[in-house]
């Protein structure tokens, strides 16, 4: 159905984006108070199946909003960034003009239209060595992160963040990558960790980052009981019982975050 919706967007000439704008505005408002919940949503993947294009776009939009709030973008810039994330790839092409051409057929963008089109145009142009504004470079980093998520199903989230932070991917702004790595933290929400404590090893899912200095170094986790059933939450920042020993892959462990 998601792919059908995407085809509809290509075939119809006058589609209003007002419903999408309203939905994104709700997410922007809610993420200021409940960032962790949405970060978990953006990390959800089937253990052995890549996300659809539509699912990936939504995840990129969610992370665009969260990261935009984190780096202090204006609300209008956050909305424009999220819209560009949702509307990207409707006409896949290396040519930036071809990429943005479908956007001229939509209504409901209002004053955002030139900013959304420019953000998408410059994010594609940057891949060809053209200059890009900061917002377009932010979009490129987030899209690269989710491209890696889809490509490397068995790679733990902390390893993907470390891979990005080490400058292993070309064509994206290294300074923005470092800020994005700080936003996600060494143990992003949705990560599967192995903990040592009480003389035994336990698996746990990162569910939140406390709002303090250790919040991302020692996140809040949900212990997994036998059969990968949800257990109690542990605030590692204030509880020294457990130590993080390693990162695990939800794909390898066959854990579905959507079931927890």
Main beta-sheet annotation: 5 strands, antiparallel
Number of helices: 10
Distance between termini? 25 Å
What topology, given as strand order, has the largest sheet?
6-5-4-3-7
Sheet-strand content, in percent, reads 5-15%
Report the C-alpha radius of gyration, rounded.
19 Å
Q: Which class of secondary structure composition applies to the elements?
A: alpha+beta
What is the element string, with H for helices and E for strands?
HEHHHHHEHHHHEEEEE
Helix content: 40-55%
Low-confidence stretches: 8-12
Shape: elongated
Total beta strand runs: 7
Mean model confidence by pLDDT: 84
Structure commentary:
There is one protein chain. This protein has 260 residues and is α+β, with helices and mostly antiparallel strands. It has ten helices and seven strands. The protein has helices at 2-11, 18-31, 35-43, 53-70, 75-87, 96-100, 113-126, 134-151, 157-165, 174-184, and strands spanning 15-16, 106-107, 192-197, 200-208, 220-225, 229-235, 243-248. The strands form two sheets. It has a five-stranded antiparallel beta sheet. A hairpin with a 3-residue loop joins strand 5 (220-225) and strand 6. The longest helix is centred in the N-terminal third of the chain and has 18 residues, at 53-70. It is elongated and about 60 Å long. The chain starts with a helix and ends in a 12-residue tail after the last strand.
Question: What's a quick, concise take on this entry?
Answer:
The chain has helices at residues 2-11, 18-31, 35-43, 53-70, 75-87, 96-100, 113-126, 134-151, 157-165, 174-184, and strands spanning 15-16, 106-107, 192-197, 200-208, 220-225, 229-235, 243-248. The longest helix has 18 residues, at 53-70. With 260 residues, it is α+β, with helices and mostly antiparallel strands.
